[in-house]
Amino acid sequence: MAMSTKLSVAIHILSLIEIGPPNRVNSELIASSVNTNPVVVRRLMSKLKKAGLIHTSRGATQTYLLKKPEDISLYDIYEAVELEHELFNIHQNPNPNCLVGANIQLALEEQYTRIQHSMEAELKEIALSEVIHQIKLQET
């Protein structure tokens, strides 16, 4: 099972916007840092802009955070970029004539919901500034 990388790429984008070269952070520079296509970066930046986390201007390199990094939680970022807010999906169409197949979805739903809520609570406790601090520690 592959988990989405949208959250980590979005955190990468926001970190680079905050600590990157002033007035030079654009989708091409970010894409180079992430090592992905600029289109992927622009799509995520569009979501971050819509969520009120960044300001961007077309054609210019005026990209900056709209909030202080300590005021942006990882949950804020997660909420902005993850369309499906579920860590786990339960497989569909199990065999209803099997004891496990008939009951697996109900048995897992409560467990997965509990895990999801726990993960979201943890993300709310971590600020973008903590990630940026860890990045800057590696600089020395």
UniProtKB/TrEMBL annotation:
What Pfam families does the entry give? Rrf2
Transmembrane residue ranges: none
Which Gene3D superfamilies did the record assign? Winged helix-like DNA-binding domain superfamily/Winged helix DNA-binding domain (1.10.10.10)
Signal sequence segment: none
- Top-level taxon of the source organism: Bacteria
Q: From the record, what ranges are coiled-coil?
A: none
Kindly give the InterPro entries that the UniProt entry links to this protein.
Answer: Tscrpt_reg_Rrf2, WH-like_DNA-bd_sf, WH_DNA-bd_sf
Give the GO molecular function terms: DNA-binding transcription factor activity
Q: Which GO terms describe its cellular component?
A: cytosol
Q: What is this protein called?
A: Transcriptional regulator
Which species is this UniProt entry from? Enterococcus ureilyticus
